[in-house]
Design brief:
five-stranded antiparallel β-sheet, four-stranded antiparallel β-sheet, 9 strands
Length: 242
Amino acid sequence: MKAIIPKLLAAALLTALFAPAAVADEAEETRWYEVQLLVFEHLGGAGNEQWPANPTLPDTREAETLRPAADDRVAYARTRREENILPGHWDRLDDSDAYRPLLRVAWAQPGQPRNDEATSLRLHGEQQIEAPAYSGPWGFTMAIPDEEQEEQAPVYRLDGTVTVTLGRFLHLHPRLVLTESPDDEGAVDVGQADTLVPLWMDEEQRLQRYVLDESRRMRSNELHYIDHPRFGILVRIDRMDD
């Protein structure tokens, strides 16, 4: 009997020692999320907003690109058909005289720390605009073709990146740019240069750029709205259950 008691005490001690490690491992298990995102523009224009003349534009060169849908969890792989992304909201925006939907997409990704090395996802709409070649430091903008390129990269009317991180809370950081030419049929009249300074205007190219660059704390399983005088975002982030 005396030999049994020390063995029981030893077993209990080992359990106590290793239990915190097991709990820690469980807590550190990677969380996966599904992000549903819809981008739309305001048809009423930018109003009387005054814009910085030299905005900081997002760099998309190191960003991930959307991957095809997968059966297993694959980071930045599509998760839904377009018609199933925030169902109903696209149709209501499309039927409105005040808004126009531009992009809807859903993808899976793991929670990642909030730091400078967090992975961003590049997103862009389908609509392209005609623009002359332009040498700039941004991956998404017009780049003068090198000798190996036959054509310059397309210029998308809506382009940029979205970063989702997980700290104490979920955070969404969109860096999206809406680019317009005054000659485009859908361009918004932002006024004369002497009364309104557009966000970005090159006298030769005559392109206007509006940037939405904002970090927002998110609650999972809730619909969130991020607004901008020129365009906005609807987003929902859900935990993906095992």
